């Protein structure tokens, strides 16, 4: 049998007051209940901690040795409960989320600003990675919440849509494509193309789309990050296709962005969490913030 918190509190109160009546008032316990708690504790540890006579109450040598230990255990217990309460009340804590880099640049800052106003005690770490890595980080429990493209059928994950993203073509200024009123995928095959490396989900979507409409892109450069591709486009190395999440970033680099048609390709962007794993209070609050703060770009 293990010693209970109630028994520890009873022993410490009696040891500090040296009086059962006064200790009972502190703990809101009757003297018989207090006496039983201490007696049961002594039976568990195998010896007397208190020396009782009709006139005096003192600690045995073993009781003297154990008193500071018991006081420390109770202090640790109180601190642990206070910490747990603060976590649930979100007065302190840490939350790590994973998002696509394009989302963390464009949409996430507004949501984080709102979250920080509501929960200033929560420290937030953002892992801005490619879409596939967001899925894996959530699946393996490295983060509680992710924002990425719809991973389609995933029995172990929950996907909650936020908005639909669409592809557009990005070019340098004064590019010949800009003279076309409605740019289609077929128009792209006449110019050097800069693509994400396989097996990224976005590259797979582009390959599937071009194959479906009989287009063969002239891929002359490949990179792992959209930021690298945008820099290549800015330096006149070719054109590319980007998600609409990156429009603000592309325009800030002086690039031109135009919608792509025939076909118009869209994909859902949303919140990813693990099925059958409850979220922390901080993560739940982040999910609600994203739902209310994020709109289509």
Characterization of this structure:
This protein is an alpha/beta fold. The protein folds into three domains: 5-89, Orthogonal Bundle (Arc Repressor Mutant, subunit A); 93-163 and 268-293, D-Maltodextrin-Binding Protein, domain 2 (3-Layer(aba) Sandwich); 166-266, Periplasmic binding protein-like II (D-Maltodextrin-Binding Protein, domain 2, 3-Layer(aba) Sandwich). It has twelve helices and twelve strands. The chain has helices at 5-17, 20-27, 31-45, 61-89, 101-106, 108-118, 131-139, 185-188, 201-212, 226-234, 247-252, 281-293, and strands at residues 50-52, 57-59, 93-100, 122-129, 145-149, 157-171, 183-184, 192-196, 218-223, 240-243, 256-261, 266-274. Strands 3, 4, 5, 6, 7, 10, 11 and 12 form an eight-stranded mixed sheet that branches. The protein has a two-stranded antiparallel ribbon with strand order 1-2. The longest helix is centred in the N-terminal third of the chain and has 29 residues, at 61-89. The chain is rod-shaped. The two termini are 61 Å apart. The relative contact order is 0.14. The model has no long low-confidence stretch (mean pLDDT 91).
């Amino acid at each position: 049998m293990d010693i209970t918190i109630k028994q520890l509190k009873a022993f410490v109160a009696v040891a500090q007051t040296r009086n059962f009546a006064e200790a009972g008032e502190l703990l809101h316990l009757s003297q018989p209940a207090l006496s039983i708690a201490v007696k049961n504790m002594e039976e568990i540890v195998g010896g007397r901690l208190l020396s009782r006579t009709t006139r005096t109450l003192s600690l045995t040598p073993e009781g003297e040795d154990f008193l500071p230990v018991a006081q420390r255990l109770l202090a640790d217990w109180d601190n642990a409960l206070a910490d747990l309460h603060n976590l649930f009340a979100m007065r302190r804590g840490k939350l790590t989320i994973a998002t696509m880099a394009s989302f963390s640049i464009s949409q996430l800052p507004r949501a984080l600003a709102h979250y920080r106003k509501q929960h200033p005690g929560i420290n937030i770490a953002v892992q801005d990675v490619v879409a596939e890595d967001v899925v894996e980080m959530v699946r393996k429990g490295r983060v509680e919440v992710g924002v990425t493209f719809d991973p389609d059928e995933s029995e172990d994950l929950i996907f909650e849509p936020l908005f639909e993203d669409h592809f557009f073509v990005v070019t340098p200024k004064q590019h010949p494509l800009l003279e076309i009123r409605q740019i289609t995928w077929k128009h792209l095959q006449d110019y050097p193309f800069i693509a994400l490396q396989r097996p990224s989900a976005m590259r797979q979507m582009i390959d599937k789309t071009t194959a479906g409409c009989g287009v063969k892109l002239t891929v002359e450069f490949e990179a792992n990050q959209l930021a690298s591709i945008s820099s290549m486009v800015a330096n006149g190395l070719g054109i590319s296709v980007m998600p609409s999440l990156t429009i603000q970033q592309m325009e800030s680099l002086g690039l031109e962005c135009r919608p792509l048609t025939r076909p118009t390709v869209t994909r859902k962007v949303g919140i990813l969490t693990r099925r059958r794993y409850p979220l922390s209070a901080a993560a739940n609050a982040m999910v609600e913030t994203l739902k209310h703060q994020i709109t289509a770009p």
